[in-house]
Amino acid sequence: MTAHARQPGRTPDGRYIVVDGRRWRATDPEIPEDAAARLRVHLMAARRAVGAARRAGDPEAERAARDRVGTAKTALGERGTPWWEQTDAERRARWSRGLAELDRAADGGWGVSSK
To answer: How many CB atoms lie within 10 A of CB 51?
Structure first.
């Protein structure tokens, strides 16, 4: 199977991906690939942290990990104001701000709300 064959379907306007018949907001296509890749690394690390916190029965760690997931998804344009309704400057600010916050978190500085 090729990488292209594994890509989910998209709506004609490109704003959503379709997985098992359900629409999910697509990642902002204007995010530079290096930044998008870093955001995806943060997202997956945060998702793993949610699972670890749940297994450990640590609601505080789970909340912090879920906040990181939310920050990553918002930075990617998958949550919050739809990326197609934002100006180029707003889009750039959104992913730059989210990436900076997640980088700080990775350095042990998490604790600031993602809201």
So the answer is: 11
